[in-house]
Amino acid sequence: MREYLLVSAVDIMQRLPSMLDRQALFLFEMTVDVDASVKITALLYLTKMLTIDLKPRGTLSNVALCMLRKSAPSNNSSSSQVRTGNPEVIALARKLFYEISIKVNLLMNVMPT
To answer: Is-above-0.70 flag for pTM?
Structure first.
């Protein structure tokens, strides 16, 4: 359900950019969602919006956190497991930063003021 709401909100942002300008932070917050499919959808739409020169306002720190492999804290030392991040999410986050790096002024446009 959250994916559908995300897609609908991004569609509105593309058609009427000034309507959701102040509420666009939700798009960056969705990149740290619990559900991997929501993260993937958010990263895909962020990449799309940034490459077609729509500039959602927000910070890229949540996107950078997607590239990290996380280790889960363990309650007992005998069953310590390392949980890695979803490889697809990591690849999409790296692709987003790659797309930012090839655009000339895009990095300056997404930096907070």
So the answer is: no
